[in-house]
Amino acid sequence: MSETKEHAHHIVSPKVYVVILLALLVGTAATVGASFIDLGIWNPVIALGIACSKATLVVLYFMHVKYGTKLTKLTVCAGIFTFLCLIGMTLSDYFSRAWGQW
Amino acid sequence: MSDSHAIAPPNTTDGNAHHEHPPYLRHHFESTEQQADAAGFAMWLFLLTEVMFFGGLFTAYLIYRNWYYPAFVAGSHQLNVVWGTLNTVVLIFSSFTMAMGVWCAETRRKKGLLLSLSLTVLLGLGFLGIKTIEYREKIEKHHVPGSSYSLQSFLNPETDPAASEAGDKPLQLDMAQHTEVYFSLYFVMTGMHAAHMIIGVGILIFMIVRASAGAYTNGHVTFVENFGLYWHFVDIIWIFLFALLYLISRHPA
Question: Model ipTM?
Fold first, then answer.
């Protein structure tokens, strides 16, 4: 667990890739299946929730972030955080500007 | 590639004195690990600019969907879920073959690397082929925004198989016209995604040529690894496009 340990190049085994591939296929089947059931307001929530889970699996395992350096993890987290701030502020502005005027 | 040699001092009596490191290590890095970390960091910074680029498009989509909700539902019903699902599966498999390509490079398996990269190219072309079929359908139905855009499917949904199957009601004229906004966003977002795929396929072919000459399986895997990051990123964009464009409006609340 020393500092140099972090820099050792981690080779992710094909077994991990196969498991993630299967998880992504199951996720795809689940999201398509859920879209054919009428769940009202929950349809978009479930679709986006599954999409986010699939994206997380790709980032952590296919893109090796789980085994990456602290710098990589910080970069990814900072990017997602900045993106969520920007999209959150923009959407709250658009959705609230005419609040109470209809 | 050659600059690490260019800055080596020329006074070599012993030719090997300056080369007790792999030839691909540039002299401004202390170690190959540091060099690989720096390249990976740079790749992630590039991907963050891509996140912001596609993020702007996704934000535009969410705002217009909120404003013109009935138009976006009717527009979404024109997309074929079967083709969309098939393309998602194709792209997930191509991400898997790319990940296997990185593993083959890391474990110095030249044949495996060539096979993985070739399969990734084929799956990428398969995705683009299916996308072409979908675009063709849109062109034939005059759903491409512009002077020949047709409101037929939205004013008279009973004449359109996809719309009547989804049970669409006729839209008011002004709302029907807003379906053009949906298709504008559809073509810009899937088109930019397809452009990234085409660039990716080009780089994959470049890598196949280099790999068959022995590159990447000599311990220097940075290029394959960072291209893998790009390819997986393009996969993630599609995961969200599929959910937002094809799936979430199947059942209008």
Answer: 0.90
